[in-house]
Design brief:
The structure holds two protein chains of two kinds. Chain A is mainly α. Chain A has helices at residues 2-25, 28-53, 61-77, 82-104, 109-129, 131-134, 155-179, 181-191, 193-198, 203-229, 234-237, 239-252, 257-277, 282-296, 301-316, and strands spanning 140-141, 231-232. Chain A has a domain at 25-238. Chain A is built from 15 helices and two strands. In chain A, strands 1-2 form a two-stranded antiparallel ribbon. In chain A, helix 2 (28-53) packs parallel to helix 7 and helix 7 (155-179) packs across helix 8. The chains are: A mainly alpha, B alpha/beta.
Chain lengths: 352, 400
């Protein structure tokens, strides 16, 4: 396992170094896109925690992200300290998530999914009505997070680094949560609630915890969104945004930290590529890509990469050519879930 | 180390236009411009048509050798379209892409929230964001946002013009308003209410809807109870405008109808909504109705239809909606500005735009004058009331 372990340390480090260097020579447009990738990766990580790890389909993530974005924009407009804006942007959606989850998680499966749809559906008209807070249908535009003088950086680079740092911290936090007691409990709740109850794990409580964490991540992503886009509008709350995030997560891979990163890349870049192919047919292209990826790697891209890496490592260790893939190819990135619980984590939970 | 390297970015394309001899995106023979529209999603029809109208006019101009600019050089225009799906974040991404790809300006983009998202960046970086296809009053404030200009009359202008039309009839009329729950709906409603103040015309019922709503049946049912004489539809979603016409007659409520210019297209709204059931259907307009066979023979309209077929063949003639004509006409206005542009800089473009005054822009109705010199209103502010009679619109001066 040495090669594999070395890879697990080297890969994130290497990625981090590359991520730190890229913006220095990239155009502001590329930096903007990469910052958006980081932003949506955080939002989708939240979705992954509740849907991928804890197995509860949530269709309300865009609402939490939107609330976080509005909180950040409101804070900026009223001259709050940045840290306070961030805390409010993350905690307010988390509180809303907990409040909604407490009654909602008594429902299961599709019924729960339908209840969570309500969030974006009521959030959009609310945001338009309370124009004093949200700026109404035209949204709230802000001008902040300029680079401190003397750093030699430009705004887009500065914002990129802020997103990178916040996202890295949140991913590390997520990894620790998911590899610890809570993560194990999520896995058991996901795979078999009866077993969870028998083991003394309150499924109700852990579902609420999962929703709360997911909403908090959504809110933090909303803060990052306002940092990058400098604009919050009701269109961010839209249900469509959640669906796109969920589709991206299916592509990236459920119950895998890297799955959220790949999903972020997918969310931001596929529409751009599709637009380059034919700007008036981006949705068809998007749908086709989703289908093709699911056909080739049903567990999502991250699952496919893990499988590929394992196959390569196995070959390097000389287990012989063409040795079959390990019996449980759908692995999760952090060594969180016990092997017995990993099976089918991804392909089982495609939406609709 | 990283910081030092940061200083070294010399190929940055975010540099603003200074007094340099020539800004990015313009050479002695070409001008590169970009446009962001919703080309997919629920707003795809207006977005695609807007882009098609621009492509048709630009294609026509290029085929004639290009535009002779105010500096004496003749340049061809390269227009590139980007899809934003009506998503502000993507619209802003498109704006940045337009800048990164060294386009000279963003022109004619359609949509209110999308253009609003890009506006602060455009003005901070001093990149022209001009001839926007939105009736929002947010884009006509040149003092606050000198690098942004609108083009069509604002929704407020439209509501005002129709309100005056009602008030001038001298009749006692009641109006039921269905408005989109955003600034568009507010502007339409405010324009109407301001114009009928003190007249015999009263608004007796109001309801709102969300652009994402699947139906407006319950709103129409509520409004129908008012038995108002006029139904005022400040609606931008075509299928909902059609659905309101269908629903009202189902309920036996047959008022005279006002349709916002955004949703006044016969093929998408009046025909599917069986508009003939109503005593009258009005809308406001400043653009020629190409569906009227007599109008279609006029030289500018015939040229438009031919250019659409040649340069924007992705839109079939039956799918042409007003956005195609507005796009074409806005592109013609933009070309007028280019002809007045004294030097190849972005500042010169903005200066040139404010000099455009014309009453011969293609497709504009006779009597509609375009004047882009005002810094507080859109280039077009006057509108005519048109009535839908026997399958085509006819402009009317007074209510019969």
């Amino acid at each position: 396992m040495n090669a594999s372990r070395a890879l697990k340390v080297a890969l994130p480090l290497g990625v981090l170094v590359v991520l730190a260097i890229v913006p220095l020579s990239a155009t502001p447009y590329t930096n903007y896109q990469l910052s958006l990738v980081g932003t949506f990766a955080v939002a989708i990580l939240g979705l992954n925690i509740v849907s991928g790890y804890a197995g509860q389909i949530s269709l309300g993530q865009s609402a939490f992200m939107g609330v976080g974005a509005y909180a950040a924009a409101f804070g900026v407009a009223h001259g709050w300290p940045v840290v306070l804006s961030f805390v409010v942007a993350a905690l307010l959606p988390a509180a809303i998530g907990a409040l909604v989850a407490i009654p909602a998680v008594r429902l299961r499966g599709n019924a729960l999914a339908v209840v969570t749809i309500i969030l974006p559906i009521i959030a959009v008209p609310l945001a338009k009505r309370y124009a004093g807070v949200t700026g109404g249908s035209e949204g709230r535009s802000v001008d902040w997070a300029h680079v401190p003088s003397g750093t030699g950086l430009e705004d887009d680079q500065w914002r990129y680094y802020l997103v990178l740092v916040v996202a890295a911290v949140l991913f590390l936090l997520g990894r620790n949560i998911l590899s610890g007691r809570i993560g194990r409990a999520f896995a058991i709740v996901r795979t078999n609630e009866a077993v969870a109850s028998a083991m003394g794990i309150s499924t109700h409580r852990y579902k609420v915890v999962a929703f709360t964490i997911a909403a908090g991540y959504g809110g933090a992503a909303g803060f990052l969104y306002v940092l990058v886009v400098q604009f919050a509008s009701p269109d961010l709350l839209n249900f469509q945004v959640t669906i796109n995030m969920l589709a991206a997560l299916v592509i990236g891979g459920f119950a895998n930290l890297w799955g959220a990163v790949i999903a972020g890349l997918f969310y931001v870049y596929v529409p751009v590529v599709a637009g380059a192919v034919d700007p008036s047919r981006t949705n068809i292209f998007y749908g086709a890509v989703v289908l093709v990826v699911l056909f080739i790697v049903p567990g999502g891209v991250s699952g496919g990469i893990v499988r590929l890496v394992r196959a390569l490592l196995a070959r390097l260790r000389g287990r012989g050519p063409a040795s079959p893939a390990p019996p449980r190819p759908r692995a999760s990135g952090p060594e969180s879930t016990p092997p017995s619980l990993r099976a089918g984590a991804g392909s089982r939970k495609e939406p609709q | 180390m990283l910081l030092a390297a940061g200083c070294g970015r010399s190929n940055s394309s975010s540099s603003s236009s200074g007094g340099s001899s020539s800004d990015p995106g313009i050479t002695d023979t070409t001008l590169d411009i970009g446009q962001s529209d919703p080309l997919t999603g629920p707003t795809a029809a207006p977005g695609s048509c807007n882009l098609a109208g621009w492509q048709a006019y630009v294609g026509h101009v290029n085929a004639q050798g290009g535009v002779k600019f105010g500096d004496g050089k003749t340049r061809k225009i390269n227009l590139k379209g980007y899809d934003d799906g009506y998503d502000p974040a993507r619209a802003l991404a498109n704006f940045r892409q337009i800048v990164a790809e060294n386009k000279f300006a963003e022109v004619g983009s359609l949509g209110t929230p999308t253009n609003l998202a890009a506006m602060p960046q455009a003005n901070a970086q001093k990149i022209p964001q001009v001839m926007l296809s939105s009736g929002s009053t947010a884009f006509v404030n040149q003092t606050k946002n000198p690098w942004t200009t609108g083009w069509p009359p604002t929704y407020l202008d439209e509501g005002t013009n129709f309100g005056k039309f009602l008030a001038a009839s001298g009749k006692t009329l009641t109006v039921a308003v269905l408005a989109q729950n955003d600034q568009l709906g507010l502007d339409y409603t405010k324009g109407l209410e301001d114009a009928i103040q003190g007249s015999q015309v009263k608004v007796v019922a109001k309801a709102t809807y969300e652009p994402t709503d699947a139906t407006v049946d319950s709103q129409i049912s509520n409004l129908a109870q008012s038995k108002a004489d006029i139904f005022y539809g400040a609606i931008s979603v075509l299928k909902l405008a059609a659905a309101s016409l269908t629903k009202a007659q189902q309920l036996g409520w047959k008022p005279s109808i006002f349709l916002a210019s955004l949703s006044s297209n016969p093929a998408q709204v009046i025909v599917p909504g069986n508009g003939t059931a109503y005593p009258a259907i009005w809308s406001t307009t400043y653009i020629k109705d190409w569906r009227n066979p007599d109008v279609a023979k006029q030289s500018d309209v015939a040229q438009f239809l031919q250019d659409m077929q040649t340069y924007a063949s992705n839109i079939a003639q039956k799918d042409i909606i007003n956005n195609c004509l507005w796009g074409y006409s806005a592109a013609a206005t933009f070309v007028r500005a280019l002809q007045a542009m004294k030097s190849p800089t972005r500042q010169a473009l903005m200066d040139a735009i404010h000099t455009v005054k014309a009453n011969d822009i293609p497709l504009l109705l006779p009597g509609i004058t375009l004047d882009a010199s005002s810094k507080t209103t859109a280039p077009i502010t006057t509108l005519k009331i048109q009535q839908y009679i026997n399958g085509a619109y006819t402009t009317v001066d007074t209510m019969k």
